[in-house]
Design a protein that fits this description.
The chain has one domain. The chain is built from three helices and nine strands, in the order H-H-E-E-E-E-E-H-E-E-E-E. The C terminus is likely disordered. By secondary structure, the chain is α+β, with helices and mostly antiparallel strands. The strands form two sheets. Strands 1, 4, 5, 6, 7, 8 and 9 form a seven-stranded antiparallel β-sheet that branches. A two-stranded antiparallel sheet has the order 2-3.
Length: 216
């Protein structure tokens, strides 16, 4: 009789352990789903902000005379974009350096550098801390330009020989000092009736996935 009670108790304990394990697994899955949903929202917001930045940059470039392209490229940057690597903006000196570590120099308008411009976001679903969104705009010569296409580091990449520049928009979302998501868009802009093909716009980041996620 005691042996049967002992066996039944052991079975109850095993069942409770199994149920506890299943419950913990469901909690983990639920939290993972919530994290994924939040990331998708943040990534979408970062893309939206980066797109807004591109439109602003296009308006600035449309008002700039082609003769001032060199002036835009030669601007010595002052601000710093928290969502980008700490050693940017570095201006690329040849085509092989057209990556996220070499974002160029900040685009400027009458109000100064278009860096760390804040965009209001809607309140997050379900409450929680209110995220902030920002964008920064960079300009650099296009890698096909004669001044960078020769892959010669000694060539001055800040001279615009073909009146076409690359516009880079970095959009990101953060809460406090924690950067949650980043989107980086790049397109070419040309003067003197140089056609701008919408297909030249591209998403890019260090991982080649058009988005980035930061923890912390």
């Amino acid at each position: 009789m005691n042996a049967e009670r002992g066996t039944a108790l052991l079975l109850v304990v095993i069942v409770l352990l199994v149920l506890s394990g299943i419950s913990m697994a469901l909690i983990v899955v639920s939290e993972t789903d919530q994290d994924t949903t939040r990331w998708q929202i943040h990534a979408g917001d970062a893309l939206y902000v980066a797109e807004m930045g591109l439109r602003v940059g296009e308006e600035v470039l449309a008002e700039a005379a082609s003769a001032s392209a060199d002036d835009l490229l030669e601007h010595a940057p002052v601000a710093h974009t928290p969502a980008a690597p700490v050693d940017v903006p570095l201006f690329p000196t040849h085509a092989g350096e057209y990556d996220l570590v070499h974002l160029g120099t900040y685009l400027t308008d009458g109000g100064g550098e278009l860096a760390n411009r804040r965009i209001a976001l809607p309140s997050p679903p379900g409450g929680g801390p209110m995220p902030e969104a920002f964008y920064s705009l960079y300009v650099r010569n296009n890698p096909a330009d004669i001044s960078v296409a020769d892959a010669d580091p000694a060539t001055d990449a800040r001279e615009d020989n073909d009146f076409i520049v690359n516009l880079v928009s970095v959009g990101w979302v953060q809460v406090g000092d924690r950067v949650l998501a980043v989107k980086i868009l790049e397109e070419q802009y040309g003067w003197f009736e140089v056609a701008q093909d919408p297909s030249v716009q591209k998403l890019k980041d260090a991982g080649g996935t058009s988005s980035a996620q930061f923890g912390g």
